């Protein structure tokens, strides 16, 4: 596969009249049309004083416009997709943290992001779909011309294409800048691991504010000149109708989505038979072996499980398509180099347990404005993933534990301390300690131990409602336990890890 250094290179892979983006109720957008849309978007942004390196927050519903806006904006500025489900306080934090110069929302948007941007003096740019020009085509409108863009024109390999936050064990989410070279390399890594060609057709059900959807769902197929059918997001009730309309050769999803799809497969066997999948891909959290077996039985196609993270621009390892699969492993290195390191920075040998580390063209050069995090994350040029694991003689990687306290709720990462701090704002709460509680479908669920102030009262429902007004829904604890005292370690530190076991919730 040709070396790609920018998203312009990625888009150049498609033949002019081939379909790039498809969606229900619209004519397809060709690669030629997509490239013209990119050129027009860069011209519009430059006219509004926005150029390479300027951060543009994007708050759009899932669908073809979100896919094309991400690519087009990243080709001339830095795209910062945000979860549309965020509350006003979260939008304010994330847009301020990245120093957003503009916010793109759909025309007539009632998102709280608009108010947050207005409060901070962040320019609002409205996107209006132009379905007459093809699925995902749009026009951008912004008020005033502003000063000239400091760095106009198409982005270069070292420019930052995409900026995302990742939740760390510290209370403050870290900023992950990914260059054009990072995301282009990752797109090719994914495409190579599943042997994508221009004849493939992807059904995208992944959210497009998340690294999995952006890289595997959008950029990987584009890098091989193939087509993407964009949906409004995952809905188990609509999946098979979308499959019938799209006629895909593959789709990628998180384990909870696969489980829901398997659960509805019975009445949809005719659709499955009509549209033979070449493979099914899974990533973002561990796929139970039982679900792999069910998926392969339902679709009559191999399931490829991959291992990824934001800092690697998604993929780090993948089970080989058509090759040997070892249940319980995340496959072999599929892009970056992968090794196991001990606490002192020594690379360990086969079957020795330590921290999984990576290095390669897809790996971020470092967290933004966070020397402490970078000092902890990088050792001798290797990035420490925070996952504990082992690599066998054939190069298959097994994740044996989590070194960090992050809660992985079905692929959505939750920073426990962020939840703690929100709940601590409640006048009745003295202490809050958020932790991971095992869940049979999601892998992990959010739980929280609470100590109330003396003489104060609060119910679990009241505290969940309080958190729900300030946090995205997936971060709100599903279980809150009232305690007289939270277990502490020898140094007096509250013990987050292992708390579910201590409280009999495991």
Fold and architecture overview:
The chain is α/β, with parallel strands linked by helices and 506 residues long. It folds into 3 domains: 7-143 and 154-190 and 205-220, 3-Layer(aba) Sandwich (Rossmann fold); 332-402, Luciferase, Domain 3 (Luciferase, domain 3), CATH 2.30.38; 407-502, ANL, C-terminal domain (GMP Synthetase, Chain A, domain 3, 2-Layer Sandwich), CATH 3.30.300. It has 15 helices and 26 strands. Strand 20 (382-391) and strand 21 form a beta hairpin.
Short description:
The protein is of the alpha/beta class and 506 residues long.
Number of domains: 3
Give me the CATH architecture of the largest domain, please: 3-Layer(aba) Sandwich
Shape summary: globular
CATH topology of the largest domain: Rossmann fold
Question: Beta-sheet strand percentage?
Answer: 25-35%
- Assign the structural class, choosing from mainly alpha, mainly beta, alpha/beta, alpha+beta, or little secondary structure: alpha/beta
- State the fourth-level CATH superfamily of the largest domain: ANL, N-terminal domain
Count all strands and give the number: 26
* Level-1 CATH class name of the largest domain: Alpha Beta
Helix content: 25-40%
Rg, nearest Å: 23 Å
* CA-CA gap between termini: 46 Å
- The residue ranges in which pLDDT falls below 50 over 5 or more consecutive positions are none
């Amino acid at each position: 596969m040709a070396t790609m250094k920018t998203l312009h290179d990625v888009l150049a892979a498609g033949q002019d009249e081939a379909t790039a983006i498809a969606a229900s109720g619209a004519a397809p957008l060709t690669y030629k049309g997509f490239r013209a849309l990119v050129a027009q978007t860069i011209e519009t942004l430059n006219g509004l004083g926005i150029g390479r390196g300027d951060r543009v927050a994007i708050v759009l519903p899932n669908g073809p416009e979100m896919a094309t806006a991400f690519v087009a904006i990243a080709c001339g500025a830095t795209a910062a997709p945000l979860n549309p489900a965020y509350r006003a306080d979260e939008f304010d934090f994330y847009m301020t943290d990245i120093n957003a110069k503009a916010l793109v929302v759909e025309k007539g948007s009632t998102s709280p992001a608009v108010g947050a941007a207005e409060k901070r003096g962040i320019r609002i740019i409205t996107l209006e779909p132009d379905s007459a020009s093809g699925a995902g085509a749009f026009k951008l409108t912004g008020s005033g011309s502003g000063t000239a863009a400091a760095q106009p024109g198409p982005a270069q390999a070292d420019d930052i294409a995409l900026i995302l936050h990742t939740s760390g064990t510290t209370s403050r989410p870290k900023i992950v800048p990914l260059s054009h070279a990072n995301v282009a390399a990752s797109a090719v890594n994914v495409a190579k691991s599943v042997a994508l060609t221009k004849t493939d057709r992807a059904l995208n059900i992944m959210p497009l504010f998340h690294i999995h959807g952006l890289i595997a769902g959008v950029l990987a197929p584009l890098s091989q000149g193939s087509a993407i059918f964009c949906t409004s997001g995952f809905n188990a009730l609509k999946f098979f109708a979308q499959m019938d309309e799209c006629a895909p050769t593959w789709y990628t999803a998180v384990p909870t989505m696969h489980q829901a799809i398997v659960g509805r497969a019975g009445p949809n066997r005719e659709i499955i038979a009509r549209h033979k999948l070449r493979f099914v891909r899974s990533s973002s959290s561990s796929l139970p072996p039982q679900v792999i077996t069910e998926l392969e039985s339902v679709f009559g196609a191999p399931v490829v499980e991959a291992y990824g993270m934001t800092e690697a621009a998604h993929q780090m390892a993948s089970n080989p398509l058509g090759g040997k699969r070892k249940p319980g492993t995340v496959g072999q290195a599929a892009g970056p180099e992968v090794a196991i390191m001990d606490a002192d920075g020594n690379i360990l040998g086969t079957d020795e347990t330590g921290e999984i580390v990576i290095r390669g063209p897809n790996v971020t050069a470092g967290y933004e404005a966070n020397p402490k995090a970078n000092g902890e994350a990088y050792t001798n040029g290797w990035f420490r993933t925070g996952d504990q694991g082992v690599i066998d003689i054939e190069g298959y990687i097994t994740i044996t534990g989590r070194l960090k306290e992050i809660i992985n709720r079905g692929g959505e990462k939750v920073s426990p301390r962020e939840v703690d701090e929100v709940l601590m704002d409640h006048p009745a709460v003295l202490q809050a300690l958020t932790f991971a509680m095992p869940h049979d479908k999601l892998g992990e669920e959010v739980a929280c131990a609470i100590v109330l102030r003396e003489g104060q009262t609060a119910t679990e429902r009241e505290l969940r409602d309080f958190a729900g007004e300030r946090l995205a829904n997936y971060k709100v604890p599903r279980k809150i336990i009232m305690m007289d005292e939270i277990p502490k370690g020898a140094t007096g530190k509250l013990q987050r890890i292992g708390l579910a076991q201590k409280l009999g919730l495991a």
